[in-house]
TrEMBL record:
PROSITE patterns: GGDEF. PANTHER family: DIGUANYLATE CYCLASE DGCM-RELATED, REGULATORY COMPONENTS OF SENSORY TRANSDUCTION SYSTEM. Keywords: Nucleotidyltransferase, Transferase. NCBIfam families: GGDEF. Gene3D superfamilies: 3.30.70.270. It comes from the Bacteria. Residues 207-328 form the GGDEF domain. Its EC number is 2.7.7.65. InterPro entries: Diguanylate_Cyclase, GGDEF_dom, Nucleotide_cyclase, Rev_trsase/Diguanyl_cyclase. This is GGDEF domain-containing protein.
């Protein structure tokens, strides 16, 4: 008769979606190896984002972020601290990270962390468990099980990622009806379908992304004074400048009239710099504009990011109209990185 751990291992096939596999692992660990919280996290830049959680002690929910610099998982991933620590007070190298959490009234008496890696061996994220109080030394016996589960998640991640890329390639091949004839960018229909199609994928993997909204200045004046052919050239010049400034594969759309949208593969830490650079590139191309930016969050999705970026763009436009600087700054609506805090 199979044990429950063997059953979970069999069910974690590479064909399973990564988010479903994460949920299965977290629920299994919460039921069989109780701790204050079990989670699967994604690590991008300076942030560690929780994708799936089972929490009874800390109030940690999917979408919560902690600073990677103070995360207990950072030293684990570097190999300088153990993966299973029944009593964090007995591991001096964890003292700084544990102290940083204690400063926010969060007690971490026991810690578990195992890496989830990509096919090239780089760190994708972690399976992590925290407990307010220390646990008996015999807790170490769970290390082999935890390593097995994180290894299986790495395999599921590879297979699911490959399937996603194949699907994206097929979708790009049939996107002619979603292309703006004037600029060659996505049209509004293509933009909306891309957001709807990618929403679940970005939530599943916790990939970094930011929405950028761009609104041109003076297109109506160009049309009225120089003719619509000049206006068309103005729009094509905008598209060319934007395409030269963004990463290949990042969706760029003309949403209608003088409005453009972009989903950039950058997180909140880099989004404002990207928006400032895009604004400067367009000004240099003779296309002054207003720009707004907002990060995608797993707990808000693309709808919230688009709305926030659009609001930031209009705020930027109002500021530029009021002060008329040549290179107005972009209002950044990022939320700050927060440390893990108790409820």
């Amino acid at each position: 008769m199979r044990t429950r751990s063997a059953q979970v291992a069999v069910e974690l096939t590479p064909q399973k979606a990564f988010d479903a596999a994460c949920r299965m692992v977290v629920d299994f660990l919460a039921a069989t190896v109780p701790m204050g919280v079990w989670a699967v996290s994604r690590v991008v830049g300076r942030r560690q984002t929780m994708l799936v959680t089972a929490d009874t002690a800390y109030g940690l929910r999917p979408g919560a972020e902690v600073a990677w610099s103070t995360s207990l998982c950072r030293t684990m991933s570097l190999g300088t601290t153990p993966r299973v620590v029944p009593d964090t007070a007995l591991v001096p190298d964890l003292a700084a990270a544990v102290g940083a959490q204690a400063a926010h009234a969060v007690r971490v008496g026991a810690y578990v962390g195992t890496p989830i890696v990509r096919p090239d061996g780089s760190l994708f994220g972690t399976v992590v468990g925290l407990n307010p109080d220390p646990l008996p030394a015999e807790f170490l016996r769970h290390e082999s099980l935890l390593d097995l589960l994180s290894s299986l998640l790495s395999s599921v991640l590879e297979a699911d990622g490959a399937a996603v890329e194949s699907a994206r390639a097929l979708e790009r091949a049939v996107s002619d009806a979603e292309t703006d004839a004037l600029t060659g960018l996505l049209n509004r229909r293509g933009w909306q379908r891309w957001l709807a199609r990618e929403e679940e994928r970005f939530r599943r993997f916790g990939d970094p992304a930011s929405v950028v909204m761009v609104d041109l200045d003076g297109l109506k004046t160009v049309n009225d004074t120089e003719g619509h052919d000049a206006g068309d050239r103005h729009l094509r010049r905008t598209a060319t400048a934007l395409l030269g400034a963004v990463r290949a594969g990042d969706p760029l759309a003309r949403l209608g009239g003088d409005e453009f949208g972009l989903v950039a593969s950058v997180g909140a830490d880099d989004a404002a710099r990207l928006a400032d650079r895009l604004q400067a590139v367009l000004v240099d191309a003779g296309v002054p504009c207003s720009v707004g930016v907002a990060p995608f969050r797993v707990d808000g999705g693309f709808a919230a990011a688009v709305a926030a970026a659009d609001a930031a763009m209009y705020e930027n436009k109002r500021a530029r109209q009021a002060f008329r600087p040549e290179h107005a700054g972009v209002r950044d609506v990022r939320e700050p990185v927060v440390e893990l805090t108790a409820d």
